[in-house]
TrEMBL record:
NAD listed as a keyword: no
Domain spans labelled N-acetyltransferase: 149-304
Pfam family, one: Acetyltransf_1
Keywords from the UniProt entry: Acyltransferase, Transferase
Protein name: GNAT family N-acetyltransferase
GO molecular function list: acyltransferase activity, transferring groups other than amino-acyl groups
Amino acid sequence: MTEFRILGDNKEWQKDFEQRLRARYTAAGLSDAAAERKLENVRADVGTWTIAEITDAGTRVGYVAVVVADDDGALAGRIGDLRLDALHAGQGHEQAARDWAEGWCAEHGARRLGILLTEPAGELFNGYGVRGQLRMRRVSSPPEPLGGVTARPMTPTEYPEWLASEKAAYVGDIVRAGALSPEAAVRKSDRDFAKLIPEGLATPDNTFLVLETAGEQIGTGWLKHGNLPGVTYGYSLHIQEQHRGKGYGRAAMAAGERATLAAGDSALMFTVWGGNEVAMNLYTSAGYQVVEESRSIDLPRSAA
């Protein structure tokens, strides 16, 4: 019978958890320095987690970690870790631990439960909706411009319209992924943009691009260099709707890869929101690997 015991001393679990997480990040292509930066962010949060030892007939078989915190005015739960020792995997303990985590978070007021996957989870979280993926590709040499698409710096007169469009698109992505309500998504958009680019076009280590072909504007790009050591993060590479379906998406990514190398980084990273299958397929075909995948479910789980 699977049972759970809340731990008072988490040191052994945390050491094992960090080792596993570091291995997954480096296997996904992150450098040691970039993986360590990711771990620093985890360490800043892990002190708030509740860690339970999973046992079977008194023998420890794994761990499950949970937390409930405020998320824009609503309580949301998260499964920070769920691991079974190899000898005890596939015996039903995984499902029992998932169910325990859902019940624990619901009892502590959560109405939504999320998990950040760094490796395939089989069928265990198939009922959780995919909210987003973090994708990355290492870039070793500047790709040639594709489809006649060129990139130039955005001008101050173009910036306000771009900003309004990007904020609206961000809200739409969040809502479509099912992550937040429209009202909460607008508040998150306002906060995030104010934090990320407080000086607009002059914000250091950011590149703002206008994508053109034959002198006609077809899209825009926004990249943050050194987001992790050696990694540029692509906040947006956007092709205008009337120009989609012409292969410009891959051309925009090539422009982002050139900007990445020009800034001295060697990898380009993006987030693709759940529900955007076109973008997911594009990233896959271009060789962008999944580093993390965010999933969530409403609580209490509906009977199905």
